[in-house]
């Protein structure tokens, strides 16, 4: 609670508003604001307001972030996050614990991602200054890095295992379907920095080929994508290799979590397929649903549409399936060929756009070569056969383009001669066999077609989790200002904790009838703020008083505030 104090300096009385809290058993001032002399305070009082005498708040006051910060802090308390971290990363000496530093960092990533150098300034503007035993002066970048340095890769795994078990138990998460996938994040780590083996050049999923990237694999629930396991890996490592490296750990994590759970199904994409990976899955404690590369199974693509059946009556309009069994990676598996009408339309539109682009480019190139042949172009370097072939091959490099265009290149009078033709029969064959189709396979032989399709579709949860971590305004794994493998791993861990907290918060609100996206939820909560105001003396009082109030809330914000019982964290 804020209080008013006076100090006698040079024979004069000066007033300060401040808040105190016990830190390591001793009282400490955690926030202080200079207000001035009594006559200064009285001079700021309004004589009248709205026709009657009322005390007017002085210009000096403070507005702090309450809603989002308090809600996330409350979840961290329920999970005993700080205690679990400190159990595996004990700290000698005085000062805030490692768990406290990581908690402050995780909450900051959720609501207002900042660099470590700016963390203290943000902290002072939130209610964390009276909830957490840390002072803003202790949140310098160097102090934060010193505490990060204590967190090893082994301790991250142990902490995450304990927290995941606590999350499942505390929130009764549905473990029936677990989703696994990987992505990568670009960094600005210098090309000549040799301290990081994690940051490598590879196929950036955000199209930043010139930058070094770091990979992240996640295991999340289909129940609001709560992360239960993560792994940071080199950015140039492919998905199948990552899955192979983690198959043992995934199995162990699932075994620790599945007490009282009869059936866990692991859902993954075709990028994780390999003989060894599927054998590891078969030996694990879970069932699976995956997908196959369609072009590797042409006989399945040739099955006539008349043999497909609609799933409209089972809640999947526009979806048709053909079910069979096939030998897949050495095992007899249930295979479902899925045709999605919406997917067909989207893929056809995309391909028609790409076809149109190439037709225009071919027409322009043929016309330009013809002008050279007629001598209408003078000056400059004449086109060569080699350069023209390289250009054409670049245009046809995109998927399906080589099948859809027949191109002939020759040379006449030392100039390239180009002819091209679009192949309507290839386009019709592509529409008939491939577009709109996905091939699924599973060992859940007793599941219905609709259950298999819905399970695979739940992958959107992990895709949504990755999108959230690439949002620059919330969670925001990047940009990260670390360049050693150890610091990168800890930074990623902090961001995964942030994802866990916001996912659980969204799940709690959903249970209360408030269905919000993560950005919308955090924006509404962030606008719930606490005001600390100074009022002049009233009546016989000779000293000003401090009062607190909440900023005005919309009806939606009021529902969130009450659903989360946030009044526990106000000083009003």
Characterize the structure shown.
By secondary structure, the chain is α+β, with helices and mostly antiparallel strands. Helices cover 41% and strands 22% of the residues. The protein has helices spanning 38-43, 67-78, 81-88, 98-111, 119-124, 128-131, 141-148, 153-171, 239-257, 275-283, 298-301, 341-374, 385-395, 401-404, 424-433, 449-457, 460-469, 485-511, 518-526, 555-563, and strands at 3-9, 12-23, 26-36, 61-65, 177-186, 213-221, 227-234, 265-267, 287-292, 309-310, 319-328, 331-340, 405-412, 415-422, 437-442, 529-535, 545-550. The strands form four sheets. A nine-stranded mixed β-sheet has the order 7-6-5-8-9-15-12-11-10, sandwiched between helices. Strands 1-2-3 form a three-stranded antiparallel β-sheet. A three-stranded antiparallel β-sheet has the order 4-16-17. α2 crosses α18 (485-511) and α3 packs across α4. The chain is globular. It starts with a strand and ends in a 9-residue tail after the last helix. Mean pLDDT is 85; it is low at 45-54.
Structural class: alpha+beta
The parts where pLDDT drops under 50 for at least 5 residues are 45-54
Strand content: 15-25%
Question: What's the Cα radius of gyration?
Answer: 31 Å
How is the largest sheet built, in terms of strand order?
7-6-5-8-9-15-12-11-10
Report the major sheet.
9 strands, mixed
Distance between the termini: 9 Å
Question: Which percent range fits the helix content?
Answer: 40-55%
Number of helices: 20
Number of strands: 17
Mean pLDDT: 85
């Amino acid at each position: 609670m804020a209080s008013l104090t006076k100090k006698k300096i040079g024979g004069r009385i000066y007033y300060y508003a401040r808040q105190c809290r016990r830190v390591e058993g001793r009282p400490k001032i955690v926030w202080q604001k200079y207000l001035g002399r009594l006559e200064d305070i009285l001079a700021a009082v309004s004589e009248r307001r709205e026709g009657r005498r009322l005390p007017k708040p002085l210009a000096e006051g403070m507005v702090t972030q309450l809603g989002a910060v308090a809600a996330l802090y409350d979840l961290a308390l329920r999970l005993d996050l700080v205690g679990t971290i400190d159990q595996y990363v004990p700290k000698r000496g005085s000062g805030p614990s490692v768990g406290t530093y990581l908690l402050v960092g995780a909450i900051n990533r959720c609501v207002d991602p900042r660099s470590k150098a700016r963390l203290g300034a943000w902290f002072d503007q939130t209610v964390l200054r009276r909830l957490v035993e840390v002072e803003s002066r202790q949140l310098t970048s160097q102090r934060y890095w010193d505490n990060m340095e204590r967190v090893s890769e082994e301790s991250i795994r142990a902490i995450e295992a304990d927290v995941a078990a606590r999350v499942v138990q505390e929130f009764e998460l549905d473990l029936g379907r677990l989703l696994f996938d990987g992505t990568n994040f670009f960094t600005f780590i210098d090309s000549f920095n040799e301290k990081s083996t994690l940051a490598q050049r590879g196929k950036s999923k955000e199209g930043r080929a010139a930058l070094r990237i770091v990979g992240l694999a996640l295991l999340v629930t289909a129940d609001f994508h709560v992360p239960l396991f993560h792994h940071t890996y080199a950015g140039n490592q492919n998905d199948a290799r990552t899955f192979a490296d983690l198959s043992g750990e995934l199995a162990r994590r699932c075994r620790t979590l599945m007490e009282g759970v009869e059936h866990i199904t692991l859902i993954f994409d075709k990028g994780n397929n390999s003989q060894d990976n599927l054998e590891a899955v078969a030996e694990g404690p879970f069932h699976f649903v995956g997908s196959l590369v369609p072009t590797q199974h042409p006989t399945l693509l040739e099955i006539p549409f008349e043999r497909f059946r609609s799933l409209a009556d089972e809640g999947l309009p526009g979806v048709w399936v053909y079910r069979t069994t096939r030998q897949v990676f050495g095992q007899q598996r249930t295979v479902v060929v899925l045709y999605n009408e919406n997917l067909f339309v989207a893929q056809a539109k995309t391909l028609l756009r790409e076809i149109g682009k190439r037709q225009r480019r071919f027409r322009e190139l043929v016309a330009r070569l013809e002008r050279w042949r007629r001598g209408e172009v003078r000056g400059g370097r004449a086109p060569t056969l080699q350069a023209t072939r390289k250009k054409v091959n670049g245009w046809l490099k995109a998927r399906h383009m080589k099948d859809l265009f027949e191109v002939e290149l020759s040379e006449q009078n030392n100039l390239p001669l180009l002819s091209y033709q679009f192949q309507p029969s290839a386009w019709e064959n592509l529409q008939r066999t491939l577009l709109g189709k996905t091939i699924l396979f599973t060992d859940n032989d007793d599941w219905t077609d609709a259950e298999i399709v819905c399970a695979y579709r739940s992958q959107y949860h992990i895709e949504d989790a990755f999108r959230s971590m690439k949002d620059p305004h919330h969670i925001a794994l990047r940009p990260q200002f670390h360049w050693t493998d150890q610091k990168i791993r800890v930074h990623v861990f902090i961001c995964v904790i942030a994802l866990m907290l916001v996912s659980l918060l969204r799940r709690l609100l959903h249970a209360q009838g408030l269905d919000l996206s993560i950005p919308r939820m955090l924006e509404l909560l962030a606008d719930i703020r606490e005001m600390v105001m100074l009022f002049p003396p009233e009546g016989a009082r000779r000293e000003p008083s401090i009062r607190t109030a909440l900023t005005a809330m919309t009806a939606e914000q009021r529902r969130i505030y009450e659903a989360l019982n946030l009044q526990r964290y106000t000083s009003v």
